[in-house]
């Protein structure tokens, strides 16, 4: 280090004039002192001089990488990391830092490749897994990122930062229920952590659980003195009535998790009989379609694993099914009953092809909908003349005239008056409306209603 460089160092950062042999140690000490004092820019200046004084020092380049990263200099951090790793590839923290620097510099695929090498070498490293998860998420590879985040959380279950990042990605991917299950134990363990409570609140919003969301968000707001988490606006929106219905995200997450044991639990434990009840009622009324009793175009709304498909396949020349949960649709496809299956929303499904169906079936599906206006209107458009819509609901004894209500089991109940009102508004005629019990709960039959409505003949 020449005299001019030393003089400039003295002007820039009050680095004392020293003898040449002492320069590296003094510069290192100065750099770390400034890092500890949260002066990342000053630390970076000192470490640059240390690198100039000893360009073969991997430690100097590694320290420069840390300080330039903290100073927000992505390009500088990447260059310094590269030099450090080139000088000593065996130093694990420098290689981890290089992967992070690549991501911070926007070189996402290179960050992914570097992270994959690191996790292959040390699959039990939570730090490497987290770095790869972040790189994959930045590269838009969400499913792969979720896998790596889950590995990182499993390796380091108490790490709130990793859990918060995973939870945010789960909400984005439509699994807000998974986010709640991940974060709630952490928030109970650390009840003063505003970020955890805010994240739980946002997940409940995605699930359209306003009461639970408000509880979490108010807790977060009380801990967030400077308002950095933005809870006040969310609270105001919820208090204004936002989020009163169940969300597709909740239903999809619930049934994707339930798919493997759905049939066993529903039929074996809960005595699920909605498909059989609907088939018996349809048979009792007799065919109304010109295609007779076995040539119908049937759409199974909320088909699940295909239990209603088993009941209605004998009536169908063409049987289609739609469900929000991809894994449930996979189970239905394995039955080889359906001519057509899709993942999607039931309202969108009935709106998709006007005049296409002789029979719409919704076995124990309307319990996940509150307002039925859009569904009935869509059904009226979807049906052919003299086509029918058959469904079960849980029964609401509606003294207050609300029409429907969300129960403690997170299932909606609907009143007979409301169903008749919906049918009339959609121009559908009620052919049948009768009590039923579509399943048991705690050993007791759940009060329900079965209805069949018909579109007028042309």
From TrEMBL:
Position of the signal peptide: none
PROSITE patterns: TPR
Keywords: Repeat, TPR repeat
Pfam families assigned: Methyltransf_25 (PF13649), TPR_15 (PF13429), TPR_19 (PF14559)
InterPro entries named among the record's database cross-references: CellSynth/LPSAsmb/PSIAsmb, Methyltransf_25, SAM-dependent_MTases_sf, TPR-like_helical_dom_sf, TPR_rpt
SUPFAM superfamilies: S-adenosyl-L-methionine-dependent methyltransferases, TPR-like
Domain Methyltransferase: 298-387
TPR repeat start and end residues: 126-159
PANTHER family: LIPOPOLYSACCHARIDE ASSEMBLY PROTEIN B, TPR REPEAT-CONTAINING PROTEIN PA4667
Protein name: Tetratricopeptide repeat protein
